[in-house]
Amino acid sequence: MKARVYVMLKNGVLDPQGEAVRHALGSLGFDGVEGVRQGKVIELDLAEGTTEATVTEMCEKLLANTVIESYRVEMG
Amino acid sequence: MKAAVIVFPGSNCDRDLAVAFEQAGADVTMVWHKDTALPEGIDIVGVPGGFSFGDYLRCGAIAANSPICQSLIQHAERGGYALGVCNGFQILTETGLLPGALRRNAGLKYICRTVGLEVASANTAFTYGYNKGDVVNVPIAHHDGNYFVTEDKLAELRDEDRIAFTYTDNPNGSVADIAGVVSKNRRVLGMMPHPERAADIGHGGTDGVAMFRALMDQFAAA
Question: What's the main place this protein lives (chain A) (predicted)?
């Protein structure tokens, strides 16, 4: 089974990389890009029966830094 | 003073930090990240700069979960001292021993130059060799030195006089110009600038020496 973890900087935490991407899109002529937030996706191959609670624990302990990042878990 | 300097794969300031401790008169032991215990009788643990584990996942995140860091956390919880510089600061925030987190520099560039630091608190074992308000010149070399804390936590840091150093000209976007903070018990300091790179006349500056001397005096007196 698989799980997918999305890690993003929290709202309110400045994302300078997202801002740089937004500027670059503007330079390429894409108008109307009002905001870009850049995050990461972590795919986990898990033994059958691994619970979402366990993946959440992985996020809390390692995959995300909850001081500045939020995360979302998708199972299966 | 007995100091231990932790070496992670990718550390590159471990030797510099050890030399700075030694020049102040400390006995230094290098400790490997896979070691599960610090040597007996260690007064202070140095967590050096570099790119531990290639900065994979997040700067300091993998190192903070290495076996030796469990011992480091126990050492700090027993009231032991620790100094984290640059990647070491990132590691200390990832362990939770220090508040906040280090984000990508606001200007996105890796910055390597000497900056002015104001001593914001001389009331720590690390900084009492300076006077509050002194400006010292210390090199920075980082890509992720943009310090973040919540407003509540910032207020707490200010109330408790835990901001050790601020930048005179903020290079990286850090909240409140913060360059270094201490733990609640004032015995753990994390800072992005490198005092160990301003510790010898050959470095082009010696403003960092007072920190290592102050630590030495602290333990000599104890």
Answer: cytoplasm
